[in-house]
C-alpha cells in the first residue's frame, strides 16, 4: 500500500472541515428551508445538526481507528466485505464528487445578480439553470479548483485555511447585519404560524432543502486522515469542531433571513419565496450596498473554498476505491514527487464536468446529493459498533463514549431523514446507487475472482434488504412524504424508526473479520513498529476470516 505524506495539523484539518461545510449551502439553504418548513426551518437546522453530529462522532472513531486517506469508502469493506463496501463507497463518492460542480454553479448563480446587464444573462430564473456562458464560467472555476490541488497538499491546506477564515466571518457578518437592519418578529408567528407545513415540512426540509448537503463536509477530515500528523487526536476534534461551528453560523443566518423578510415578500406565503441570490437580494432591498458587495465577492470565496476541498478529498476517496479493488489500480498511483493521486484527480475532473453538463443549477443537484449522502451515512454506525465487537484492539485507543447507544440512534435518524426526502426522489437515488454494481462485479472478477464470494454476499444481505425496505415504505408512505398513503402519517415514521433499528442490529450481526480488515491490521502493525510502538493488539481470534 502506498503512503501519503502526513503534513496536516489539527487546526488546518478542522479548517478543512469548516471549509467543506460552509460552502454554497449557506447562500441558498435558508431560503429553501423556509419555503418548505416556514419559521420552523430553525428546528430543521437543529435536527440536521444533531443527526450529523451523532454520525460525525461515529465516523470520528472510525477515522481515528483507520487513519487512511479515502477512509469513508473503506470502513464498510473492512467490516462486511466487498459488496457492502462497494455500495457504501459508491454512494459516498457519487454524493461527494457532485459537490465540486454544484459549488461552481452556486458562484455563477450569485454572479447573475450583479447590477450589470451582462451578468443577468448567466442564469435563467424560470428554468433554474445556467446559460451557456454561465456554464462555461463554472467549468473554468472547476478547473481552478483542480489546479490548486494538483501539486501539493501543503498548498491546498494553506489556501483552504485562509479561505475558511473568510468563509466563517462573512456569513456571521451577514446574519448580524440583517438582524440589526430589518427584523420583523411577527414573521415567526404570522403567515400560517411557526410551523405552517407541520412536522413533515420540518423533516422534508432537512432532507431536501440543502441542510444535509450543507453539513456534509464533516467527512473531509476523515478522508484526509492519512495525511494528518496526529490522526488519533486531530480527527475527532476536527469533525466535532467543524460541525458545531458551522451549525452556529447556519442558525444565525436562518433567523436573520426569516426575520428580515418584509410583509410584501411574504404576501403569498413562505412557499412562494423565490430569490436568485437570497442574502444579496435582501441586502440590496434594505440598501445595505456594502454588504451586497461583500456577498457577491463571497459567492466566489465560500463555494470555491468548498470546491477546492472536495477536489482534494474526492481524489483520496477514488484512491481508496481503487485500493479496495473496485476500479483500475492505476487510479491509486501516487505521484513520486508531489505525493498526490493525480490520476484519480483527472477522473474526478471528468466526472465533475459530466455533472456540470447534466445539472445546470444549484437546486437541481442539492436534493440528489442530500439523499445520496444519507445512503452513504448509514453503514458508518453499523461498521463502528461492529469493530467494537470483532476488532476492538485494532487501531488507536480513541473510543467515543456511549457508542453502543449513539450508533443505532444515528442510523435511525439518518433513515428517518432519508424517508423524508419524499417519493419518488428516494427511490430514484437508491436505484442510482445500485446501478454501480456491474462496475463492481467486473473489477471484483478481474482483481480477486469470486472464490469465497458467498461470505461477502451473505454479509451484505442486510444492506440490500434495508434499501429495498426504504423504497417500499417511501412508496407506501403518507402523502406529506410523497407516498400513496397506504401507511398514514405518523405510522410511516414509526415503521421507519423501528425497522431501521432492526436492520441496524442485523447489520452488526453480519460483520466478520474480512480479509481486508486483516490486511489493514497488518499495515497498522507495520506502521506502529516503524514509529517505535511494541504494544500492538491483535484482532479478535474468535472472529477470524474464512475464505
UniProtKB/TrEMBL annotation:
It is found in: Membrane. It comes from the Bacteria. The keyword Zinc does not apply. It is a multi-pass membrane protein. The keyword Transmembrane applies. It holds the Pfam family AA_permease_2. The chain crosses the membrane at residues 12-30, 42-62, 83-102, 133-153, 165-185, 197-216, 237-259, 279-301, 344-362, 368-391, 403-421, 427-445, 457-477, 489-508. Keywords: Membrane, Transmembrane, Transmembrane helix. This is APC family permease. It comes from Alicyclobacillus fastidiosus. The lineage of its organism: Bacteria, Bacillati, Bacillota, Bacilli, Bacillales.
